[in-house]
Amino acid sequence: MKITPPWDQRLARPCARFLSHTLVTPNQVTTLSLVFGVSGAIFLAWGGTAAYWGAFLYMLAQFVDHMDGELARMNNQTSKFGHYYDHVAGGIFEFGLFCGIGIGLGLNVLNGWAMTLGFTTAISVGITVAIRLEISRRFGNDAIDQPNWFGFEIEDIMYLVGPIAWLDGLATFLLLASIGLPIFMLITVWDFYVRCRLDRRQRENRA
After folding, report:
1. What is the pLDDT of residue 105?
2. What domain range includes position 25?
3. Does a structural domain hold residue 195?
4. Which residue ranges of the chain lie beneath pLDDT 70?
5. Contact (CB, 8 A) for 73 and 130
6. What's the structural domain count of the chain?
7. What pTM does this model have?
């Protein structure tokens, strides 16, 4: 059952509505989410109890990341730059998340593979974001819409970073992410390839 908009977007609307009566711009909100996300990555890299705050800041970044789009639509301030900035900012702080987790866990976790898994997972995120942006540019924003189940999207699983960190489960989370996100990257690459191939055939048929 699809419920639109997703729950986190619904929760972001009252905040965006308040900001719509101020001089705050959508791009400023995006920048704030980026600051929260990068700060969270730094705290996660420190490890220990600082990682708990880092996970909280990441969750906050994820939530604020939904406010900019709502604010842009409310104030009729949508722009191509804002669209790309939003996606790039989200990619940067998610990239930082896995780098931070890997560094924070150190060399004595996951048989010494924590840092390596953190960086390789982060690279998978970066590649995925870049390809999704290209899909959006070529085939429209609808082409990168995520599946919706009862008001939750795939990316909403990232909100679990907080509870997982507070329960000292970041090592398990990183291990699972190091498997799941490269798979998602490959699916995204394949989706891009199929779309390009189909588009090329359609162009040839029209020629």
Report:
1. 94
2. 7-206
3. yes
4. 1-7, 147-152, 207
5. no
6. 1
7. 0.88
What's the rounded Cα separation, in Å, for the pair 137 and 62?
Answer: 23
Would 2 be classed as within a structural domain?
no
- Classify residue 52 by burial, with Cβ atoms within 10 Å: 0-12, 13-18, 19+: middle
| pLDDT tens-digit series, residues 135-188 | 998 888 777 777 666 556 777 788 889 999 999 999 999 999 999 999 999 999
pLDDT at res. 149: 64
Burial category of 159 from C-beta neighbours within 10 Å (exposed 0-12, middle 13-18, buried 19 and up): middle
Task: Compute how many other C-beta atoms are within 10 angstroms of the C-beta atom of residue 182.
Answer: 17
Q: What's the rounded Cα separation, in Å, for the pair 126 and 87? A: 11
Contact assessment for residue 88 and residue 30, using Cβ atoms and an 8 Å cutoff: no
Question: Does 111 fall in a domain?
Answer: yes
